[in-house]
Amino acid sequence: MDTRQRLVETMSELMWERGYADTSPRDVRERSGVGQGSLYHHFPTKRDLAVAALERNIDDVLPASSGLEGPGDPIARIEAYLTRPRDALKGCKVGRMTQDPQVREDPVLLAPVGRAFAAMHARWVRALRDAVAAGELGPEIDPERLAHTLMAVLQGGYVLAIAHQDRGPFDDAVAGALDLLRAAAPAPSGTNRQNGTNSEE
């Protein structure tokens, strides 16, 4: 790993652990073992290093969502993505940045975060549209709206888990999202959804 990569990786780790505001160039130098001259040669400002670190974190996060797309049963793909292993107590590498006031107030730092969420939303929408087309979700479902709901469930689950220092709320949020998806599945023809009986009886 070259010096630039080491700096970016270290900054990305520290931002995930502490946030941007609470990470200093000195912290990066001490953890990475890179000298001050080398740091400022590659990144004249802390903000320059943070942008590179954010892009790296996005590159880590987005491939995981690729499972929402591709062949196979759409709802199975969605369930697999929702239930994939996550470190709930560390939070989302990208979503956590929205809680940092210095990131929120800086359009340059916030822009890659917004782009990452837009890309994630687009993948969710495509997966949900596939589920509607396959008859696994009812035609009344709005994929754009439901995509935002499911993204909010994951991000909110991280916040609750960190607040309680317990991954239980995150797991409950995911389980609740799966319950909602199953409830949104069309009822079999001739079945009363409220009591599960055949309407012809």
Keywords:
single chain; 201 residues; mainly alpha; Tetracycline Repressor, domain 2; 9 helices; transcription regulation; Transcriptional regulator, TetR family; Homeodomain-like_sf
Care to describe what's here?
Keywords: DNA-binding, Transcription, Transcription regulation. Residues 1-61 form the HTH tetR-type domain. It holds the Pfam family TetR_N. One of its GO terms (molecular function) is DNA binding. This is Transcriptional regulator, TetR family. The protein has 201 residues and is mostly helical. The chain has one domain: Tetracycline Repressor, domain 2 (Orthogonal Bundle), CATH 1.10.357. The protein is built from nine helices and no strands. It has helices spanning 3-18, 25-32, 36-42, 46-61, 74-82, 101-104, 107-133, 143-164, 168-183. Helix 1 (3-18) crosses helix 4 (46-61), helix 4 (46-61) runs parallel beside helix 7 and helix 5 packs antiparallel against helix 7. It is elongated.
Q: How many strands appear in the DSSP assignment?
A: 0
Give me the number of helical elements. 9
Please tell me how large the radius of gyration is.
21 Å
- What share of the residues lie within helices? 55-70%
The helix-strand sequence is HHHHHHHHH
Intertermini distance: 70 Å
Q: What is the CATH fold-level name? A: Tetracycline Repressor, domain 2
Keywords: DNA-binding, Transcription, Transcription regulation
Organism: Xylanimonas cellulosilytica (strain DSM 15894 / JCM 12276 / CECT 5975 / KCTC 9989 / LMG 20990 / NBRC 107835 / XIL07)
GO molecular function, one term: DNA binding
Pfam family, one: TetR_N
